[in-house]
Amino acid sequence: METVKIFELLMDNPINDVTFSGGEPFFQHHGELLTLASALKGNGKNIWCYTGYKWEELIKVKSRKEVCEFIDVIVDGPYILERRDLNLQFRGSSNQRLIDCAKSLAAKQTVLIEV
Fold first, then answer.
1. pLDDT tens-digit profile of 66-86?
2. What does residue 37 show for φ and ψ, rounded to 5 degrees?
3. Sheet order of strands, 97-100 included
4. Structural domain spans, the chain
5. DSSP 93
6. What are the backbone angles phi and psi of residue 40, rounded to the nearest 5°?
7. Which of 68, 63, 57 has its CA nearest to residue 106?
């Protein structure tokens, strides 16, 4: 589906939150992901992203870091069945972290969100 069509569908939805997930969002074509994230954020959407990458790995790659500038929260790290924890909010295994992207980029260090 075209990026423009996806954007239009998401903007027509009254829910203000968008989640990039499924497979690996950062395996998508960089330009399309960046365009979509930028347009959604510019129109007031709150963006979360689930990725198997660790935050520290993501921001080492310029194209991925550019996308992170438009994402509010990243849930990083792969789901690990042996570390499954049903008491955790917003993630499935205890190795996964909730990262505040804007604060982390500004501080140049990983800033976790505690829930």
1. 999 999 999 999 999 999 999
2. -60, -45
3. 17-20, 46-50, 73-76, 97-100
4. 16-107
5. B
6. -65, -45
7. 68
